[in-house]
Fold this protein.
Amino acid sequence: MTEFLRVIAPDQFVQLLGGFDRLSSERVSLDASPDRILSEDILANEDLPEGSRSTVDGFAVHAEDTFGASDSIPAFLEVAATVAMGTMPDFEIHPGQAAQIPTGGFLPRGADAVVMVEYTNAAGSNSIEVTRPVTVKTNVLEKGEDARSGEILLPVGKRLRSQEVGFLAAMGVTEVCVYRKPLVAVISSGDEVIPIDRKPSPGQIRDANSHALAALVRAAGCESFLLDIVPDNSDLLKEAVRTGLAQADVVAISGGSSVGMRDLMADAVSAIPGVEILAHGVAIRPGKPTLLARRMQKAIFGLPGHPVSALIVAQVFLAPFLQYLQGGKMEKGPAGHRVQATLATSLNSTIGLEEYVRVRLEETAEGGWTAYPVFGKSGMLSTMVKADGIVLVPMNAEGFSRGKAVHVIQS
Amino acid sequence: MTEFLRVIAPDQFVQLLGGFDRLSSERVSLDASPDRILSEDILANEDLPEGSRSTVDGFAVHAEDTFGASDSIPAFLEVAATVAMGTMPDFEIHPGQAAQIPTGGFLPRGADAVVMVEYTNAAGSNSIEVTRPVTVKTNVLEKGEDARSGEILLPVGKRLRSQEVGFLAAMGVTEVCVYRKPLVAVISSGDEVIPIDRKPSPGQIRDANSHALAALVRAAGCESFLLDIVPDNSDLLKEAVRTGLAQADVVAISGGSSVGMRDLMADAVSAIPGVEILAHGVAIRPGKPTLLARRMQKAIFGLPGHPVSALIVAQVFLAPFLQYLQGGKMEKGPAGHRVQATLATSLNSTIGLEEYVRVRLEETAEGGWTAYPVFGKSGMLSTMVKADGIVLVPMNAEGFSRGKAVHVIQS
């Protein structure tokens, strides 16, 4: 049995990935920016709001005029004017006066607070009673309170959610600088592997891996392209990886779960000029026969041929790496909602391997969750499909007992 | 003050949304299917694998030949052949014989188990010693074990993850029937609102809402288009909503946080022939002045003009509704990872309103989380931007005390 050259711990693998440079920047329109990560600070070049605005429907007043007002002793004010939306009022409110103002309306000069309409009563055609006092700035969003000219609106590294997009829109920012999204070249290899639209002859299997990997890349918000399936031939493997490197930021090639094929892939990759093998094996199960290499700033993932192993490795390392390249933190995957569950059966695990166990979740009568390991032989795709998520058994554990509270990552 | 016509509880609002029909189906290629939801069952029309395959590198054997084998008393077998990848072996293994087989290789006739290479030693040029026994089917993935012809591979309603895509690829499924994705018409209204690429005159504000809503729709995996900003004019509002209804599956129009404008929008929407107002006000804060209407099977969301309120309503109701329309469950939002946190300060809330409080999260020394409410006046976009998530205070609570364990939805 050929020994792995350099089996490393999962955390080391993550560290190696974090050693790659992030991708370059690009300018995109604000509408294309959701879920992208800023590659530079965005500065405010004006105040928001540009003048003081009311946050309620009511009356703009001198706060002082309302001090002591109550239901029994209301303050009387003359309604001198009405603020219209979309205009900056050109009049002034003097002591003893009020101006009707809608939510969002800009305060007229002189006014320093707004009384909600609920705390006023009409008193004749042109006056109101105010039944509650307001202090200065009550119900007023002051000039520059949301953002002040010159300050950093959003810092580099910030992922843009819909609220950030709205904030930038309000500030008149129509384009932003974000990290480029990685493009991934996906390659399947193996003499037995055929395209999915063909009927396998005896002994052949369809190419599940590249389509599953393309789906994973797409779910990570990135683009991929598929190269032709490569037979088990060192020169052709080398050529395919070179083609991938020339066109993409990341190459993900799967195949070679058997020992011989694994070595073939390692040989082919390391024969490419400028390629450095960073890891040859990672201490996880499934997924141990994983290769990581680099050429300049481009990563090459050599994934196992087993679809289940390939997908687990891709979830644990590749998907987070794609986030990292476009500005995110490098954190071990899988990403996904985490729920706490009680383990329905014991799990055995091997010391020295971090194990990713597929589980089904069932809701309990009390509204909690029970996790049932999905057992199945290595290479069974249906185990992944039946699973609602994954339980991670750490390297130093021999397994988990039945009844243990575990975290299930819904991935 | 104008009363709301029909303020309903959030759960009722969700129920109303769940009363809409889902969208129609469409056929998409497998590579376009990730994160889509099946609109019909997918049946297997062949067995997977189509023959029995080895799950390890080793030797295909008659299990019976290995019974009792150990390091001290190994079983001796003649290596009669080698299984090549990509072909169905055309030979047979007789008792006393073995065939070298790679991981994934198809078993030759006669063989019913595989011995891992680790438990064999070479014994001369053409024989091996087997040092551990195997039982029938050990290290073998049997014909049809992953999927059996005729069975339901994946049921209607299943959301396709990368593993399902891989599974379908392996089965030769190249196209799937999924629910169509909704197209959303986004409209902003208000005399004071101008496009984001213009410099506001005094009293004007830029259109934050439609860009934030478009971002939210995009984050939900759907498409939207923006109509022109509509001034506060009943006829023009009506016309814009009609245009939206003609072109899109859902119309989201924001504007009218002031009482007068709110009524203007309700009047405009209800004046459209065939439109039924389902809700005029929902008991949440922020976001109470929300309108829900339907025309045939199309929903019209009348959202508040305040960007913060509009976004909260969109997260709580619109985004989940977009998932529902394309086959998901109708569940109240916001969607997002949930973390447990300790509340840093007390929160006041009003009985009868479900309150969505924006909070910042800070990690504690112990690896837990503290949630700090982001206070700020209504209409401050920066409160949404500063927030890492939302804490929901239920309708029947007057608030939460400092130190309470709360769930924060990272949205």
Q: What stands out?
A: Chain A has four domains: 10-24+182-325, 26-48+158-179, 53-141, 337-410. The mean pLDDT of chain A is 93. Chain A has seven helices and 28 strands. The CA atoms of residues 245 and 251 of chain A lie 6 Å apart.
